[in-house]
């Protein structure tokens, strides 16, 4: 059974966690809230795959690395990682990539790195875009979260729109995928 890791899977990416479980993945979901992890595991109980609560705080590197190791020992290497990581932990996504690299595989592993619309800021994109060092055997897709323009107003994406776009990026395997739009920057909510 393929093993997926989801960071942000009890909140914004809850729907993506459940969709991956429906597709037959073992899904290790990292979050700090035991209650939200438990509720998500219960919601995914009738799926083909299984949701595996992985309590950890990705901003605390050593315990986070230990949680990743434990998940890999229990369910095998991560075939897919979907990561919504705030800028408070810039090392977390690189750490995940290195864990994915450790196991050799004929098929590249996929890391889907979700970024806020600042990653596509027209004047300062390189400064604000977290970069992951190239990691052998790990294919990275950057998903940039934009906004939706409705008439003369704009709004942020809903969780449902984000999850649908993330699943689309997982299925299509692009190098970069934008959900919604990031231009014109002046329309940003």
Structural description of this entry:
This protein has 189 residues and is α/β, with parallel strands linked by helices. It is built from six helices and nine strands; from the N terminus they run E-H-E-H-E-H-E-H-E-H-E-E-E-H-E. The protein has a seven-stranded parallel β-sheet, with helices on both faces. Helix 1 (14-22) packs across helix 6 and helix 3 packs parallel to helix 4. The protein is globular and about 50 Å long. 38% of the residues are buried.
Strands ordered across the widest β-sheet: 3-2-1-4-5-6-9
How much helical structure, as a percent, in the residues? 25-40%
- Counting H and I runs of at least 4 residues, what is the number of helices? 6
Mean pLDDT level: 90
Offer a few descriptive terms.
189 residues; globular; 9 strands; 33% helix; two-stranded antiparallel ribbon; alpha/beta; 7-stranded parallel beta sheet
How would you sum up this structure in a few lines?
The chain is α/β, with parallel strands linked by helices and 189 residues long. It is 33% helix and 26% strand.
Spell out the blueprint of helices and strands:
Blueprint: E1 3-7, H1 14-22, E2 26-31, H2 34-43, E3 50-55, H3 61-75, E4 80-84, H4 91-101, E5 109-115, H5 125-128, E6 138-145, E7 147-150, E8 153-156, H6 159-172, E9 176-179
Parallel strand pairs: 1-2, 1-4, 2-3, 4-5, 5-6, 6-9
Antiparallel strand pairs: 7-8
Helix pairs in contact: 1-6, 3-4
